[in-house]
Amino acid sequence: MMRARFLAVLVPLVCASCGSGILGGVLLGNRGGGGGGSESQQPSITLDPAALPLIAVQFPTTYLPSVRVRVRNVAIDLLKQEPFVTVKVNEHDVAGGTGPAILLGDTLIFDQVVDYKVAALFADKPYRDFQVSFSVGIREPNDPTTKDDDVIITKNVAPPARLQFLRPPLITEPVEEKIFVSAAGTDRIQFAVKFLRADSRSDVDFFVVQRDFTVKSDKPDALRPVPLTGVDVTKKVNSTETTWLVSGVVPAARFPSRDFILLVDHQGGNALQTDRDWPAVPPPQVVYEPKIVRWTAGPTPTLGGSLAAIEGFALIPVKNDTGQIEYLFDAIDRITITRNGRSVDVAKEAIRRDLSGEQRLVFLMPPSPDGLPGKASIELALLLVDGTPVSSRVGAEETGSVRYGVPTPVLGPLTSLLPEEAVDVRSGWFFSDDLPGQDLALLTQVGEVAGLALMRRNGLGLFRTAGQPITTRVAGYEAGHAPFALLSGQTDGVGFDDLFVVGGAEPPSTSVGSHALLTATADLAEPFTLIRSTYEFRGINVDASAADFDEDGKMDAVVLPDGQAPAPSPDIWLSIADQPRRVDVTVPTGIGGRRVHANDFDGDGHADIAVAMDVAPFRVYVAFGDGRGGFNRSQIVSYADVKPVSRGLTGLVSYGDGPLTKYRHLCLLSSATVGPKQHPALVPILFNPASRKFIDASANDVLLLTDVEGVFTLGATMDLDANGVDELVVAIPRVTGFLPLTAFLLQRGKPLELEGFFGPDDGLEQVKGLRQVILERRSVGPNLVGLLVLHTEDIGGNKVPAVSVLPRTRNGLTPRNLRLDQSKIPEGVAIGNFDADAVQGDCATAQADGIRIHRAFAPALHEPKPSFVASNPVPGTLVSLPLLPTGDGICWLERDGRLAVRHPNATKIAYSSDLRSYLAGNRGAAVDDRSRVFVRNVDSDGLVDLCITLKVQHKDERFAVLYLPGKSVAAGELPFVLPKAGLLVDAEAAAFSVGNLLSHDAHDDPGIEMVYAVHDQFRFVWIDVLTNGVFESTAPLGVLAPVHVDPSVMSPVMADLDQDGTEDLAFLVPNARRVRVLFNRIRRIGPRSYQGALVSFLGPTLSYAGTALGLVAADMNGNTLPDLAVVGTVLRNKSNEGSVCLFRNLGRGSFGECYLFPSFNFGSEQKAFAVGDLDGNGMSDVILGRNVLLNR
């Protein structure tokens, strides 16, 4: 608040006529100089006004409360003295002169200014009356002989007047000193005020005093008053007090700043937030915060790196000390992007200062906070010059939020392509422990240095690269040198899983190598960070395993040096993360190690280790743990009598032979030479629970695969059929029929080779790793797990590193190439939750003999045997019906003209009457395949409605367009109302679709439009929901006149493609192999009154290759925008294969060029397809024929 100064100024008298400070002549009371005039009148004082505000401030200059004093009937004798006026209370001067007095006729006029310092002493009183008197100073000379100064005596020469000071208005709400408002000028503020004297809006001024940054800060006009708009003054009276509510919309601001608000009562002056200690108390302050309107960018990959911008108001603080505006980019505290509880900040150096201003802030996007596509929130936080923090945020579900997408999505089986070649893979909770399934960590080899990459779960059994791969280099030596193994688990007992990189060989520069410990950071810029690399080793390591040897709840590691090394005994590392210490396990002389395995073999609850050698004398050393990090007994087991076994031990595993068995047997993955050929062999070493020891291997228990040449590549145990008993999966190359994965039942005795676990389409080349992975963590029942296979994949003739997942079901492992279990190619496909359970993604297919429903028991995984509904359907009319919040029904047209509906999880089918009765004739002909059923909720009543185009197999019979509103019924009844009549359209009509082109209001103007093609025109049908009438739209709605298009258009779709809130129209032009888009520029201006038209998309031509089966608008890259996808076939390798061409939605009505999904198990025979998110990763999947193609 501006503070007044006390002005103690004597008032010299100035003659208005002579302009001099000396008065001459006779002025009053003795006119004409002393000659016989009338008797003079007594001087009097008048005040204007007699009441004034106690405090009042105006801008740009300070206005101090003042009163005009008029003294009438001033005698000439008085003016010979030295007159001045004082305003006194309790003998304290509270006012002083501000300028010379003016004499007009018989009146002396001058102004007085109030001194706040004295007036403030009385601020606690509602009213103050001050006495105003007119005094003169009379000079009385002293005795000349004394030479003393003359004495001036002050005398009042007029009765005093009374001046009243008014109590200022008091703001009682809000009580905060700072009011934060948006710089967009959209926020309304309201004050509750007492002691207001205003009778109406015109008696009040309400404005913000803003800093004008276009003016140098020391200039007088650097501050400017800007009035609030929409000011409203409401008087509230109750039994105890009267309160005024004063509100208004704060004006916009160009820059973020801290300003103040003035509420001025024309009578009472400025409103205060307190009537104590004024005027030192400042007025209410308003802090202008930035306002993000929208985030704009092209395709933003999950790995970041693309250019983006936020647009809005007051996005950057500024200052003006030199006459030029200076942007304070360093005052940008942070730009934070948040998704699923994870946040990442835009790097300060990523902000493009050369492209940014107060309305647009440009920067390079960071990676998706959780590594996955989809919407994210964005927040801009600033620090004003005075240190006040301000911010603006757009939530993930708000308009203008951040959208991440996958730049190169892949459709196909449960196979994920890797960023580079990996030597090992581990699953774990590396980034988030609240996901339904685990992520993957890849161990790569960069030269002789370990590299790590994170693969985020992106759907059931699907993974995508997240963040940037890192290497474990440290100063002095290279941690994880020549890495060969990766161990995962919690080494600190809390948080995410950690990684232990096992080094394999001596570094070339020193004699000491080291393993390395890394932890997950939940930061995609660096998903893993090196914590420790002081786990030294000497020699060459060949194998490693993990267990909790000291039972402290943390992972320990055991590393085995090569058996030919000087010190072949294994190293056990305890307390890996805290204070790592190495425990030596002394292996008897003559037993060199090749494989090591840790588990609880004897069932006592303590971790044990087994070390196997693959040279004579062919022994296994077992050390039994004591639970404290040591070992209390050991045993040497021999398999020397197993003939013929040669060097080539590729694996050592343990297994239980029953669901309740606590102890575990061992199995060696070895090989044998028979003649000139080498064959793989399995050597069981059985545990005897009675003696609590292992039994020497018996030749009778060895399984020698004489029909296979070569050796086992690697193997892993896993309960493949969820019966509580482990099986063994091994990778072995076969001479014929390249099926490298084989399963064996491990039992008490000779292993048994199993058939049926791996079909011919699961051929996996160059298998390098086998692990178990949790695909879906469940609160009830066992987790959904799968076999994770590290291998190479043939993509277009190129060998690409990949991981595939084979989910485990009750019937064994599901093939990674997902197909619907049916022999016939579907002619109609629909996706929904048809059994109303917790798992989405059921699938219904239609063929000539009936409907099949494939139930999903897990996301994207369907039961092997579908349920069957015998009928005579028109396959292309099969659609999903969202009848319940928890489940979907299906409906279709029968050849006999009836509409069939199956409620969720019901067995009874509800049928309508024969809809062919709405046709003009030929009502006995079978329903034609060109008939279609469309599902919409037209009137927003929570019930789905149907639009049906019905055609019979007679070329001259016209289509009947029918609208069937939904109704609430019990299961087994028809949930639609049959219309009284329909609309007949051209018999040659084609390419039907429905949508809301006219932006109907669901309550005031419910309706829907249907489009269809006839020759070279698109024509429109208007459906009036209020009357259930179906009309040609050209009559009531001229904005939908026929649109000329290319002949033979097909597959029109309606969707909001440019995010303006209205549905647009896209369709195929097969003759030109392109997609055409008509953007909707029709706007509703009143009840059934519209203006505008459909406007052609003027961007690049959306061309595609091959033959189109149909067009869909769906989110295919996870950024929540509707893309356009052409599903069809292309010619590859002299045969037609399925294809999907994606035109990515770039936002605001633009699309990218065709991105052809890599051919990945698309199949060659397609008649129908459906699109929907089967696995819940936010990206639309495709069922193409029988092939289930998952998108990631």
Secondary structure: elements and pairs:
Elements: E1 13-15, E2 44-48, E3 51-53, E4 66-72, H1 76-79, E5 82-89, E6 92-93, E7 95-97, E8 101-104, E9 107-114, H2 116-119, E10 127-140, E11 151-156, E12 161-166, E13 170-173, E14 178-182, E15 188-194, E16 204-211, E17 223-227, E18 229-237, E19 242-249, E20 257-265, E21 269-270, E22 285-289, E23 291-297, E24 307-313, E25 318-319, E26 326-327, E27 332-339, E28 342-345, E29 360-364, E30 374-383, E31 389-394, E32 402-404, E33 411-412, E34 415-417, E35 424-428, E36 439-446, E37 449-457, E38 463-471, E39 473-474, E40 477-478, E41 483-489, E42 498-503, E43 513-520, E44 528-537, E45 541-547, E46 556-561, E47 571-574, E48 581-584, E49 595-599, E50 608-612, E51 619-625, E52 631-638, E53 646-655, E54 665-674, E55 677-685, E56 687-688, E57 693-694, E58 703-704, E59 714-718, E60 727-731, E61 741-745, E62 752-754, E63 765-776, E64 784-795, E65 798-809, E66 812-813, E67 828-832, E68 842-847, E69 850-854, E70 856-858, E71 861-862, E72 867-870, E73 879-884, E74 887-893, E75 899-902, E76 909-911, E77 932-936, E78 945-950, ...
Parallel strand pairs: 1-8, 3-12, 14-22
Antiparallel strand pairs: 2-4, 4-9, 5-6, 5-10, 7-9, 8-9, 10-11, 10-12, 13-15, 15-19, 16-17, 16-20, 18-19, 20-21, 20-22, 23-24, 24-29, 25-26, 27-28, 27-30, 30-31, 30-32, 33-99, 34-65, 35-36, 36-37, 37-38, 39-40, 41-42, 42-43, 43-44, 45-46, 46-47, 47-48, 49-50, 50-51, 51-52, 53-54, 54-55, 55-58, ...
